[in-house]
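Lecture 7 notes: from sequence to structure.
We start with the chain below.
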Amino acid sequence: MIAVIIMIPLTFIPSTFVGWIVNERQCKARHLQNVSGLNFYVYWLSNFLFDLCSYIITMCLVIIVFLIFGRDEYVASNNIGATFLVLLLYGVSGILMAYALSFAFNDHSSAQNVTMLINFIVGFLLVLAVLALKINKSTETAGNALRWIFRIVPSYCVGEAISNLATLRVTQAFNINNSAWDMDVVGWVCVYMALEIPVFLFITLFIDHPGRRQRSQRLFHNPDGAPEVIEDEDEDVVAERRAVLEDVEREGDLVRVVNLRKEYPNGKVAVRNITLGVRPGEVFGFLGTNGAGKTTTISILCQEFYPTSGRAYVCGNDIVTESSAALRCIGYCPQFDACLDLLTVEEHLYLYAGVRGISPRSSDRVVRGLMKLCGLTEYRHTKSHELSGGNRRKLSVAVSLIGGPRVVFFDEPSAGMDPVARRGLWNAIETVADNCSVVLTTHHLEEVEALAHRVAIMVDGTLRCIGDKTHLKQKFGTGFEVTVRVADESPEVVAVMELFFEKEFPSSKVAEVRAGRFTYQLPNTVRLSRVFTALEQHKEKLQIRDYSVSQTSIEQVFMRISENAELEHMEEHEQRTQSKKKLCCMCF
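Predicted C-alpha cells for the same chain:
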C-alpha cells in the first residue's frame, strides 16, 4: 500500500517541467530570447540544470521521509543505493521526456494536464494492471511481455522499481535472498531509463535545433523566384524599388527588403512583392489595416517566419543565410508582450542584459538607465503579471533597447498606454533614434506624425504608398481642414453655417458635423489668408466659439488609401458576382 501511495506523486513530476517550456514558447519569450542572441545549447542546458536541481531537492526530501518513517525496503543499507539511482535516473529521463513532449503542445495548461494524465496512467494504473496480470498464472506471460513495452516511459520504470523494492522486502521475509540490484528488481528499470536519456535528448535537440528548422524552411524558400506583378502600382513604390535595387547610395540601408513574399500553406498571401529600405538613423513608419501584412513583414525580418520568396537584409546580413549575424543587430518589441510572469521588471532587464553579453559590471548602469528612460524605476521590483498593460509595453520597449541594437522593430509599442505614458514613449524613441534605425508600426497615427521621417502604408499585403510625410500629404491629401465650433446647435445656426461655406468656399466639402462642431475640407487652391479673413468677419453672425485650420494629417491620408482599397474590393466582388451570373446563364 505504501508503494502505491508513493507512486502517485512521483508520476506528476514531469508535468511541472513541460509547462514552463511551452509557456515560454506560447508567450513568445523564447523567440525574444533568440532575437536577443541566446545560444541554443545554453538555453537547453540552463533549463536542464535548473530543473535537475529542483528535482534533486524533491528527491532528497523523499529519501528523508523514507528515513524518518523507517521504510527499510527503500533506505536500508543494501537498498538505499538502488533507490537513489532509480530516483536520479527517473529525474533525468523524466525531465528530458517532458522537453521532448513539449513540442506537441501550444498551450502550457494543456501540456501540463495531458503530461500529468499520461504519466498517471502509465506510471500508476498500468503498473497496477501489470501486477494484477502477473498474479494469475494464465496471464503472467502477458504481464511480463507488456512491461518491456511500458518501460519506454520513465514513470512506468519508477513505478515498477518502487513496487519491486516493496515486494523484495516480502520475499526476504521468507528467506529468499534476492538483491535490490537484481535485473528483475531495479536492474532492467535502470537500463531502460539510462537508454531513454540520450533518446529523449536527441529528440529534443533535433526538433528544436535552429539549423534543422532553417534547412526545412529553406526547402520552401525561393529567394530568386520571379516577383509577382502588381497592377497599377504607385509611382513612389516603383521608385523605391528601383532605388533599393539600383542606387549605390541605398546599399548602406540597415534594412533592405527585396521582392519579399509570404504565402501560408492554406494559400493565403500575407506579403506580396514588398521592396523597401530603411536608412541609418531613420524612423520608418509602417502603417496598415489589421491583416495588411505589416506584422508578418516584421516577423520575417526578426526571423519568426521565413519568407516564401524574395530576400531581406539587416545590417547587410541575409536573414536566411546569415541569420545569426542579422539577429545581433536587432532589437524587437513584439505586438504582444513576451514577458515572464514571475520575473520582476529589474530581473527581466538583467536577464536580457546577460543574454546580450553585457558584463555584470556594466549591466547595473544599463538597467538603471533603461528603467529611467522608459519610466519603470518605481516598478523595478514589481512582477510582470502585476503590471498594467501600459507598463508591460514599457517593459517590452526597454527589453528591445538592451545592448544598443542598430535596428529596432517596434510593433505597436504604445498599445494600452495612456496619453502621458505614450508621450514618454515618444521621447524614448526619439532619444534612441539618434543612434539606430527604427521601424515603427502603430494604430496611433499621431505617433507617426510625431516620430516618423518616412511612412509606408500597406494594404492587402502590398505597399500602396511610401515617402516622407509632407510628400504623402500633398499627394493624397485634400488640402486644408477647417474645424468650427459654435455656441448654438440649433437648426437655424446649422443652416447658416452650411450656407456660409457654400457661398464663401464653393469647392469645400463637409467632412463631419457633430455636437456643434463642423469640419470642412478645403482644396489647396484656397488661400489661408482668405479662410481666416472670412471666419473673423462672420464670427459673431455664425456664433463661432473657436475654430482651427490644419493641413491634411497622416490619418486622413491613411483613411483615404484604406477607403480606396475598400472600393477596389467592392468592385472586384461585384465583377466576380457578375461573372458567376453570366456563367450560370450560359449553363442554362
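Points to note: The longest helix spans residues 554-587. The mean pLDDT is 84.
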